[in-house]
């Protein structure tokens, strides 16, 4: 026996508990204080053990069981009401019989606790800007928890979002060092959100060291966030300071000379815990399966939080990234409309190093006027600079009796700076028996985009079948007339209102609207020419969103929603016309279920979404900043997401989506009306599961694996040949062993991705200028071959 707790009241009484996840000794002290109990325990017996968070109305015995979950200890209740805690061993169980417990209420585990192992998290903020239970939100919101990120050793955002149906990611073939195209319900964007703040570029380089979890909202979030693709948004939730000290060091190593080190530290700075901090750092040095590609990445992200009073707090968040990246324009020759099966390592460019820098600063403050009304403001600044000088391969041609690829030096510099602020007033009140959560807010975004591009005036040739490389620049030099600069400034003003109503009969209604005004202007200048003003865009719109959810049972919710969105397009249409603003509307119906006190959840949805004025790259005029516009694109289909714990220790994720995306109206020869829209697999599915042994001689061992499937994709092919991206499937495995040593927890883990070494592409962008020798060009994104990753992590 380790300890005994003598409660101050009889067991049948229920009371409110609110205890955060923390070292077990501290958790038991809070448990004793909140229950009015006296407690005796042995300090060594608690070493290295951590408690679960509990929040809700429970009997003392039920609360003790939940508190001890996963610690290797069990609680039993005597007839006199004494709670006894003992080791969970076979010998102990032979002498102690635990009575059956009927848990009243629901445990609300703290998702931010470092040792939280839940796959299914109860709440999300992306859908409503407020911390709202997913089962009460009439929207399709999915969350990839930090335990999933740990089990899969996720280091990129693309790896995280494959755990959600209808969401795919691929590198942009001609800009794949920094750009990651995220596609949700058929519509792509290379933007993502950081705690609700839009970042215009760099999703491919999103450092995951300070990521708490990843939220995905399907369908438009435009009424709250403005310029958002109607397919949905990806919101990265970052780690915040904790009052309980926590420290972690991890060393990862793997294929292609990968070495990645991370540090996570948090705790109080002041004795009264009024000032807290969190610091995340990472450094990565790696090669690639592609020739001439080396990467070095350094990252630091401090956060400081000041609890000025119980009602007022302020936080300062900073991030800095500096990356030296191998520039790699992945070109795959085409012969008679078929891609040549070249080695995945083959690089028709040369050794080129790009530099990416990102500065981020955020100041957030909030104040509670009383228990019902509060105000908060977010101020954020993001500055990104991306320099990518590289040797760019072009269309094959006959030269010196050989099939050769002419190459020129391309040196684009991209700058994307964003400045924003949002002010939100939140109130809770009741009218005629209806409970309201009202959100009134306004935001302002300023985005400055600058592109400076140089191009060489001469060419260098390389043999298509037997490439012989010539060094860094190969004698290439910039031509006097090949310098182009492009600037674009976008100002966005928004006002929004949202009301979440809790109606009788377990009905939940969410409704709101947004007024948005957009002003966009730009200027282009070529060498030796005067600046040319791009057409100015000024537009505004009022867009609604409504949703209704009926929670028929605690475990079943049925919902429907209707949303509209409005936003500006980037770029221009040849010769010098603005890309008209886009709009979209969507209907959706679905059902959500959850079991085992919320540890397992499933969502089934069907949607019908149409977007007008869809802008795509003008492949007939590459690298000139022009777009072509499809009149309307429709996307619809079913989606299924399952995540959580089926049995103790057995976690699972299963997804499926059938995404039917077609062009329904067009102004151009391509894409043609009725054609499949490019870059979207028709069918996507994934399965991932892990099992952790909780007891016995295998205790601490975790094994798992999964499979990812992608159907074929249409391509943005101006020739009308409709080249397709073949479908593929990949298999992943993992194994881990963790053990408590003293006050520390040590975990050793090993992952294998693409176990069967599948040769595949995630994206193909045809560029059709047929040559006299029958060869064309396509720029592709090769899938990563089989890779291994190991890690050693120490937490205390």
Describe this protein's structure.
The longest helix is centred in the first third of the chain and has 12 residues, at 24-35. By secondary structure, the chain is mainly beta. The chain has a 22-stranded antiparallel β-barrel. Strands 9-15-16-13-14 form a five-stranded mixed β-sheet. It is built from seven helices and 51 strands.
Features:
mainly beta, 22-stranded antiparallel barrel, 5-stranded mixed beta sheet, disordered N terminus
In summary, what is this structure?
This protein is mainly beta and 796 residues long.
Instruction: Give me the secondary-structure category.
Output: mainly beta
Largest sheet features: 22 strands, antiparallel, barrel
Mean pLDDT: 85
Strand content: over 45%
Low-confidence stretches: 1-12, 89-109
Helix content: under 10%
Q: Please count the beta strands (DSSP E, at least 2 residues each).
A: 51
Query: Radius of gyration in whole Å, from Cα?
Result: 28 Å
Please write out the topology.
Layout: E1 3-6, E2 14-19, H1 24-35, E3 38-41, H2 43-46, E4 54-59, H3 60-67, E5 73-77, E6 83-87, H4 90-95, E7 123-124, E8 132-133, E9 140-144, H5 146-151, H6 157-161, E10 167-171, E11 180-184, E12 187-189, E13 192-194, E14 197-199, E15 211-218, H7 222-225, E16 232-238, E17 246-254, E18 258-268, E19 275-286, E20 295-309, E21 312-326, E22 331-335, E23 338-339, E24 353-368, E25 373-387, E26 390-393, E27 397-399, E28 402-431, E29 434-455, E30 460-463, E31 484-503, E32 507-526, E33 532-533, E34 537-553, E35 556-567, E36 572-573, E37 577-578, E38 582-595, E39 600-617, E40 626-647, E41 650-658, E42 660-666, E43 683-692, E44 701-710, E45 713-714, E46 724-725, E47 728-741, E48 744-753, E49 761-767, E50 775-782, E51 787-795
Parallel strand pairs: 13-16, 36-40
Antiparallel strand pairs: 1-3, 1-6, 2-4, 5-6, 7-8, 9-15, 10-11, 11-12, 13-14, 15-16, 17-18, 17-51, 18-19, 19-20, 20-21, 21-24, 22-23, 22-50, 24-25, 25-28, 26-28, 27-28, 28-29, 28-30, 29-31, 31-32, 32-33, 32-34, 34-35, 35-38, 36-37, 38-39, 39-40, 40-41, 40-42, 41-43, 43-44, 44-47, 45-46, 47-48, ...
Helix pairs in contact: 1-3
């Amino acid at each position: 026996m380790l300890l005994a707790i003598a409660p101050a009241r009889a067991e049948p009484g229920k009371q409110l508990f609110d205890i955060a996840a923390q070292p077990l000794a501290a958790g038991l002290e809070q448990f004793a204080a909140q229950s009015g109990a006296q407690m005796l325990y042995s300090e060594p017996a608690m070493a290295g053990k951590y408690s679960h968070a509990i929040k809700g109305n429970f009997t003392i015995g039920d609360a003790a069981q939940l508190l001890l979950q996963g610690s290797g200890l069990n609680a039993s209740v005597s007839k006199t009401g004494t709670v006894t805690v003992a080791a969970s061993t076979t010998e102990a169980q032979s002498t102690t019989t635990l009575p059956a417990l009927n848990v009243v209420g629901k445990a609300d585990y703290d998702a931010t606790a470092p040792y939280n192992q839940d796959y299914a998290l109860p709440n999300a903020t992306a859908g409503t800007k407020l911390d709202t239970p997913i089962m009460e939100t009439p929207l399709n919101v999915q969350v990839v928890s930090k335990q999933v990120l740990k089990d899969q050793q996720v280091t990129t955002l693309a790896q995280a979002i494959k755990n959600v149906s209808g969401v795919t990611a691929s590198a942009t073939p001609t800009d794949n060092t920094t750009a990651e195209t995220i596609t949700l319900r058929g519509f792509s964007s290379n933007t993502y959100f950081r705690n609700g703040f839009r970042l215009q570029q760099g999703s491919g380089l999103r450092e995951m060291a300070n990521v708490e979890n990843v939220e995905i909202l399907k369908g438009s979030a435009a009424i709250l966030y403005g310029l958002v693709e109607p397919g949905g948004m990806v919101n990265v939730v970052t780690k915040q300071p904790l009052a309980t000290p926590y420290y972690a060091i991890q060393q990862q190593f793997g294929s292609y000379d990968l070495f990645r080190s991370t540090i996570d530290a948090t705790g109080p700075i002041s004795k009264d815990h009024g000032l807290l901090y969190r610091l995340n750092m990472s450094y990565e040095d790696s090669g690639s399966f592609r020739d001439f590609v080396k990467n070095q990445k350094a990252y630091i992200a401090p956060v400081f939080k000041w609890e000025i009073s119980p009602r007022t707090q302020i936080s300062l968040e900073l991030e800095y990234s500096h990356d030296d990246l191998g520039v790699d324009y992945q070109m795959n020759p085409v012969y008679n409309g078929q891609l040549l099966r070249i080695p995945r390592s083959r690089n028709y460019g040369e050794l080129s190093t790009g530099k990416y820098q990102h500065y981020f600063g955020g100041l957030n403050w909030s104040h509670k006027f009383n228990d019902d009304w509060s105000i908060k403001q977010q101020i954020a600044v993001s500055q990104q600079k991306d320099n990518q000088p590289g040797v760019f391969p072009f269309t094959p041609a006959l030269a010196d009796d050989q099939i050769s690829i002419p190459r020129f030096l391309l040196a684009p510099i991209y700058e994307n700076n964003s400045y924003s602020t949002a002010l939100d007033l939140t109130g809770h009140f009741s009218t005629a028996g209806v409970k309201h959560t009202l959100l009134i807010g306004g935001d302002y975004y300023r985005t400055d985009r600058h592109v400076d591009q140089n191009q060489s005036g001469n060419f260098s040739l390389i043999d298509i079948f037997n490439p012989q490389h010539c060094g860094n620049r190969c004698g290439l030099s910039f031509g006097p007339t090949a310098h182009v600069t492009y600037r674009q400034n976008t100002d966005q003003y928004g006002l929004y209102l949202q009301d979440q109503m809790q109606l009788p009969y377990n009905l939940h209604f969410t409704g709101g609207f947004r007024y948005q005004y957009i002003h966009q202007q730009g200027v282009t200048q070529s060498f030796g020419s005067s600046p040319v003003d791009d057409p100015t865009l000024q537009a505004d719109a009022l867009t609604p969103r409504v949703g209704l959810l009926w929670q028929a049972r605690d475990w079943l919710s049925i919902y429907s929603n209707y949303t509209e969105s409005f936003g500006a397009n980037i770029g221009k249409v040849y010769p010098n016309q603005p890309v008209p603003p886009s709009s979209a509307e969507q209907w959706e119906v679905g059902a959500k279920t959850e079991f085992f006190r919320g540890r397992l959840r499933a969502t089934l949805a069907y949607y019908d979404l149409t977007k007008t004025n869809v802008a795509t790259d003008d492949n007939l005029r590459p690298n000139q900043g022009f777009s072509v516009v499809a009149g309307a694109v429709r996307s619809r289909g079913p989606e299924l997401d399952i995540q959580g714990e089926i049995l103790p220790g057995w976690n699972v994720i299963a997804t499926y989506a059938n995404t039917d995306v077609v062009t329904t109206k067009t102004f151009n020869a391509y894409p043609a009306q009725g054609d499949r829209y490019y870059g979207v697999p028709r069918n996507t599915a994934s399965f991932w599961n892990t099992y952790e042994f909780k007891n016995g001689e295998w205790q601490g061992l975790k094994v798992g694996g999964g499979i990812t499937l992608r159907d074929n994709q249409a391509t943005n092919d101006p020739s009308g040949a409709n080249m397709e991206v073949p479908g593929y499937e990949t298999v992943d495995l993992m194994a881990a062993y963790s053990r408590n040593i003293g006050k520390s927890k040590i975990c050793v883990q090993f992952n294998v991705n693409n176990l069967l070494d599948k040769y595949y592409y995630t994206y193909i962008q045809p560029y059709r200028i047929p040559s006299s020798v029958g060869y064309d060009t396509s720029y592709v994104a090769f899938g990563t071959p089989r890779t291994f990753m190991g890690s050693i992590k120490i937490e205390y």
